[in-house]
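Page 47, continued from p. 46.
Same chain as before, 179 aa.
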Amino acid sequence: MPRERLLPILREFGEFPEKYRLMMWKTLLKLPENSDTFALLLKKDSISSVSNYDDRFSLIDHKTMNNLKQIVSCIVHWTPVFENVSYLPKFVLPFVKMSRGDLLFCFELLLTIFFNHCQLWFEFLPLMDKPCNYLNLIENVLMEVDGDLFEVEKNYFKFNLMLKKFFFFKVLKIKRNLK
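Result:
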């Protein structure tokens, strides 16, 4: 189906029909479908950190678990810095489930998201794997847009600020030890 016919469907209904959703998103996203390079990444051994996924995600069926391990391993082989991202499997899992076994689509979709929306999330790796700059942005937007909700969540944000302070003390300690 041509791209020009898909956008009006999305605008009118807010979503694509379940049966054709994956195919329609593939068409709209224009992913490169670089199956040769992806096959090379799949041939590499699984990374060591995926070995404990069976314990961490015990409620996931066997097929989804294998797909999750393969996608995370491919992402880490593609860019080793991702091995330091503790939340990577939790971030990847919904995409693995949604892609229904189409690993190439899942991998390319995740890379597209990382490139276009998350490129600054990883600027402090490996010292801190949480995207503090985005957490600050969300905090500021929430304060501006919905002060009442921000007040309700104030304790959460105080805790978050404590984590950020801890991180900066850690950086200073490392810097002091290097001198």
